[in-house]
Write a structure and sequence with these properties.
Layout (H helix, E strand, L loop, with lengths): L12 E10 L2 E4 L4 E4 L1 H7 L1 H4 L7 H7 L9 E4 L1 H13 L1
Antiparallel strand pairs: 1-2, 1-3, 1-4
Length: 91
């Protein structure tokens, strides 16, 4: 019997860093967690996605409505986007 190989589609995962205001400074308030933003990044198109920089208006928009945190936060996703498209080009 032949083994069936299933290829999993790569995901683009943003790292969400919840913060709180302390003496007018945003400081880490909870453990960071991952959010799958694949669909939203792909909807942007490759050219726009590859220009996204961490902790920007674009990253804030990527996670809007996907978390319950109230307050400041940071988003890391730039490297994940770059790696996603690099893996697509390598195939």
């Amino acid at each position: 019997m032949a083994k069936r190989i299933i290829e999993r589609e790569a995901k683009i995962i943003a790292v969400f860093h919840p913060e709180a205001w302390v003496n007018d400074y945003a400081v880490d308030s909870e453990d960071a967690f991952n959010i799958d933003v694949t669909e939203r990044v792909l909807a942007m198109g490759k050219d726009a996605a590859l220009k996204v920089q961490d902790n920007s208006d674009e990253t804030d928009a990527l996670v809007q409505g996907l978390h319950k945190h109230r307050g400041p936060f940071g988003i890391e996703v730039e490297d994940a986007i770059q790696a996603y498209y690099a893996s697509k080009e390598a195939k």
